[in-house]
Design brief:
Elements (H helix, E strand, L loop, with lengths): L13 E3 L3 E3 L7 H4 L8 E2 L4 E2 L1 H11 L16 H11 L5 H81 L4
Antiparallel strand pairs: 1-2, 3-4
C-alpha cells in the first residue's frame, strides 16, 4: 500500500475500509498510518522501529473482522454494523408505544389548532362583515330620519299654509269687500 502522511496522535482514530475505525499505531496496517523513513524502518511515537516487528505485532493484535452479509461488503466494522442493525430494527418496547401515541396526539393537536385558527379568521371576517352591516343600517336609519323630519316639516308648513288660507278665505267670505 501507499504510505500515508498521517502522524498518529493519542486519542485520534482513523477509518480504514478493511478494518473500520482504529487507533493509529495499534491495530492498523503500518503502511497506512505511519511515515516510513528512508532507511526502511517505521517511525512511531517513541522512535524508529523495525518494519518486521510492526508487521508481526499488527498481525497478531488485529483479529479478522466478521462480515454481515446483509450490510454489504464495505462494512466490516462490528460497531458500525450493530448501529445499522439497530437503525433498521424497529423498537417494540412500551416506551415506543407511548411516543407513538404522543406523536399521534401532537398531530391531532396541530390539526385542531389549525382548525381553530381557521375558525377564528372566519369569525373575524364575519364580525367585520357584521360591523359593516351595522354601520350601513345606522347610516340608512339616519337618512330615513332626515327624510321623515323633512317630510314632517313640509307637512307642518302645508298645514300652516292651509290653515292660513282657510282663515283668509273664511274672513273674506264672511265680510265681502265693499
Amino acid at each position: 500500500m501507499k504510505p500515508s502522511r498521517f502522524i498518529p496522535r493519542k486519542g485520534l482514530k482513523q477509518y480504514i475500509p478493511d478494518q473500520g475505525w482504529v487507533t493509529p499505531g495499534q491495530n492498523t496496517d503500518p503502511g497506512d498510518t505511519q511515515l516510513e523513513p528512508m532507511d526502511g524502518s517505521v517511525m512511531d511515537e517513541v522512535g524508529p522501529v523495525p518494519t518486521e516487528a510492526i508487521n508481526d505485532a499488527a498481525l497478531s493484535a488485529n483479529p479478522t473482522p466478521t462480515r454481515d452479509s446483509h450490510l454489504g461488503e464495505g462494512l466490516r466494522d462490528p460497531l458500525l454494523g450493530e448501529l445499522l442493525e439497530q437503525l433498521h430494527t424497529p423498537p417494540t418496547d412500551e416506551l415506543t408505544d407511548h411516543w407513538q401515541r404522543i406523536a399521534a396526539e401532537v398531530a391531532q393537536l396541530n390539526q385542531g389548532m389549525r382548525e381553530q385558527k381557521r375558525l377564528r379568521e372566519e369569525l373575524a371576517a364575519i364580525e367585520a362583515q357584521l360591523l359593516g352591516l351595522r354601520s350601513t343600517i345606522l347610516n340608512d336609519l339616519h337618512a330615513v330620519q332626515r327624510i321623515a323630519d323633512h317630510q314632517l316639516v313640509q307637512a307642518r308648513l302645508r298645514s300652516e299654509v292651509s290653515t292660513l288660507a282657510q282663515n283668509r278665505l273664511a274672513t273674506r267670505l264672511q265680510h265681502p269687500p265693499e
